[in-house]
Amino acid sequence: MISHSKQWEFLKNKFEANQLAHAYVFLGQEGIGKKEFAKELVKFINRNVIARSDLAIEKETYPDLLMVRSAESDSSLKNEKDMMEIDISQIRAVNHFLSFKSYYGGYKAVIVENADRMNQEAQSCFLKTLEEPKGKTVILLISSKPGALLPTIFSRCQSVAFFPSEKYKASTQEQEALQELLGIMPAELAVKFQYAKKVNVDGDRFSAILKSLQRYFRDALLSSIGVESGGAMARQRYDIFKIKKIIRLIESLHEQISTTNANPKLALEILLMELF
Known about the structure:
The chain is of the alpha/beta class and 276 residues long. 52% of the residues lie in helices and 9% in strands. The chain contains 13 helices and five strands. The longest helix has 20 residues, at 205-224.
């Protein structure tokens, strides 16, 4: 059973009207089924050739589908761990893959997981692929951090936003943190520093602050490109480039706090200065 029915109907109708774009960015938070949706879409648009064979797209043995993951980058393999990066060698492999005709006569498909992990060199290389699509090709970029993608990537892809199910609700801590921060964002620096000094950042509290801001500014970013409404204050106060910069900073601080002994109060001060 396909979840995200509105997105499915939109893309199904585009395909059946022969209006499927050559590249899409699937936007939305992690863990809501974007990758599974992408694989189901590839299966659907190639359903005729798959039905005539023993192809197993679920196990990713379909020769006209290439999956790109950061865990398979050269740096990751050399270091025996995921270096959180998609490198240029993988994008060159995409270009090589797309240079050949479809094995079964359907669509050649590429799914890039965590597309925001492409480094700058890889993204620049990928632009040529997006500028010069060949034949029946569909490229699906999956991202929960759209601010890390180059604007030129967005301009060459159609954006499709995915949302959590109605059952998902932000935690009480996140809701409370966001309400406090919405009042602090337009304040003077002195007020922000006073807030950072007094606010409780023990336990999961700082993580809740970062998550609330991350969701808020992602909503603002999606709204600014016309795929979601939300983050009204952020859209009025900051332009799209500033919003992307803030999202990157939040993600960086979250990683530092999670993996090092960084001071949460100092991290919050740095973030609040960026919101000036």
